[in-house]
């Protein structure tokens, strides 16, 4: 296997030893001392080449690749097919460089310009809106990677670049996992301040490898955006951490950083609760993406046992809400639990509004209640049954030859027929058509049988009989 010095010699003489046709004529970046500019890692060396004004990161292994050749080929093909904006162009070239008489495989990646993650945060430390935007972009990237079944495997500040306009780029693809290589032995397990403790117990590549580090990075960005003095307090610039270290994960709720972040905001508290749940999980492969915990709120119930009621009456308001950070109801009820009931006495028509505040979304539901004033009874009228038939009145009182039948009030037309078929006679019938009153109905002979017929929906208030004793002649 080629050693490091032999590789440096080949890079100095690319015209002779570079065998990648697509890079023919490329030049290596040279330091002031005359040697090629190079990043040296545990497995490979990375140089910067320029070809036709385009820069490339050119990687050459200084340790045997073995079976990993197929792995890198799969990653290269997969990333090329997905064309996600977070990855540089990534091409595996077989026998790309001649080193000490041996052709070795190489990888070329588009050289990405941008600020390192921490440099970008420090530059915008006093501009919380830019940092929140960075957090949102990071969250979108996490979702895009999951949608395309890609896990970077080593998300940390050194592997994230940010362009001037806030776009995120990822570097170092040795730890990437795609469906074709899931379950293979891991090359890299990441920095401890970004990884679940179980990640370091020896494992295999997993598409879930980023879940823990995604939460740590997102939480840290938002916390610094809300409280910028955390940057200096935890000396973020001069460490490999953001805000959390591996010792914090041993007893998070008693850690210094937890006490500094707890109560900072509803969002921070929610993310801390998810982190606690993560740390209670034995193995990182059992984690769920933290975005699932941030689903929009759902109002499953907001009802009243009465939608119409009399003023002063009681009603019961009931509600159930899921996924909310805060739930409140107007009209003086204010903040409430996610599930509850309230007994109310509304005095007027009112619209109750339940507001469920989620992590990134607020949901509102309204309930209209109609309230009627208590009725006051000013009068009562009892209708007399309607007469639409013939009514027979029989009077046979010889001792009272003078009988007066008085009808005092008649509200509608009244037809009265008398049938004197038993030798009765009537001397006087008085009827006033203006006020519709019968003043009197007199019969001066004993032995009376009358037929009385009332029609046309008449209401009658009557003095039926007034008996008068027999007058002496």
TrEMBL record:
Residues 32-291 form the Protein kinase domain. SUPFAM superfamilies: Protein kinase-like (PK-like) (SSF56112). It holds the Pfam family Pkinase. InterPro entries: Kinase-like_dom_sf (IPR011009), Prot_kinase_dom (IPR000719). It comes from the Bacteria. GO terms for molecular function: ATP binding; protein kinase activity. PROSITE patterns: PROTEIN_KINASE_DOM. This is Protein kinase domain-containing protein. It comes from Polaribacter butkevichii. The lineage of its organism: Bacteria, Pseudomonadati, Bacteroidota, Flavobacteriia, Flavobacteriales.
């Amino acid at each position: 296997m080629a050693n490091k010095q032999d590789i440096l010699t080949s890079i100095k003489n690319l015209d002779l030893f570079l065998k990648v046709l697509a890079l023919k004529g490329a030049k290596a970046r040279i330091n002031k001392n005359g040697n090629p500019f190079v990043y040296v890692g545990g497995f490979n060396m990375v140089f910067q080449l320029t070809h036709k004004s385009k820069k490339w990161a050119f990687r050459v292994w200084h340790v045997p690749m073995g079976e990993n050749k197929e792995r890198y080929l799969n990653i290269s093909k997969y990333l090329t097919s997905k064309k996600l904006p977070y990855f540089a162009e990534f091409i595996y070239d077989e026998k790309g460089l001649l080193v000490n008489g041996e052709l070795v495989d190489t990888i070329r990646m588009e050289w990405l310009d941008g600020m390192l993650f921490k440099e970008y945060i420090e530059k915008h430390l006093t501009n919380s809106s830019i940092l929140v935007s960075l957090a949102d972009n990071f969250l979108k990237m996490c979702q895009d990677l999951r949608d395309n079944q890609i896990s970077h495997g080593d998300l940390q500040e050194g592997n994230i670049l940010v362009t001037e306009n806030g776009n995120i780029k990822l570097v170092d693809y040795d730890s990437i996992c795609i469906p074709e290589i899931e379950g293979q032995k891991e090359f890299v397990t990441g920095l401890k301040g970004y990884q679940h403790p179980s990640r370091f117990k020896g494992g295999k590549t997993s598409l879930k490898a980023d879940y823990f580090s995604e939460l740590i990075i997102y939480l840290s960005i938002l916390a610094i955006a809300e409280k910028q003095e955390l940057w200096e307090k935890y000396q973020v610039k001069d460490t490999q951490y953001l805000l959390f270290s591996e010792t914090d994960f041993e007893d998070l709720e008693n850690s210094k950083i937890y006490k500094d972040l707890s109560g900072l905001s509803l969002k921070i508290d929610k993310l801390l609760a998810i982190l606690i749940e993560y740390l209670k999980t034995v193995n990182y492969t059992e984690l769920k993406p933290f975005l699932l915990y941030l689903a929009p709120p759902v109002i499953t119930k907001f009802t009243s046992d009465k939608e119409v009621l009399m003023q002063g009456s009681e009603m019961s308001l009931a509600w159930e809400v899921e996924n909310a950070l805060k739930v409140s109801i107007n009209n003086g009820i204010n903040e409430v639990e996610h599930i509850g009931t309230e007994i109310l006495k509304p005095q007027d028509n009112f619209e109750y509004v339940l507001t469920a505040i989620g992590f990134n979304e607020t949901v509102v539901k309204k309930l209209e209640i109609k309230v009627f004033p208590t009725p006051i009874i000013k009068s009562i009228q009892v209708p007399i049954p309607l007469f639409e038939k013939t009514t027979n009145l029989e009077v046979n009182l010889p001792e009272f030859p003078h009988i007066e039948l008085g009808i005092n009030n008649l509200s509608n037309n009244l037809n009265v027929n008398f049938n004197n078929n038993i030798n009765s006679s009537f001397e006087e019938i008085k009827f006033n058509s203006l006020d519709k009153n019968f003043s009197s109905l007199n019969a001066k002979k004993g032995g009376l049988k009358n037929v009385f017929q009332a029609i046309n929906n008449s209401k009658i208030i009557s003095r039926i009989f007034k008996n008068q004793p027999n007058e002496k002649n």
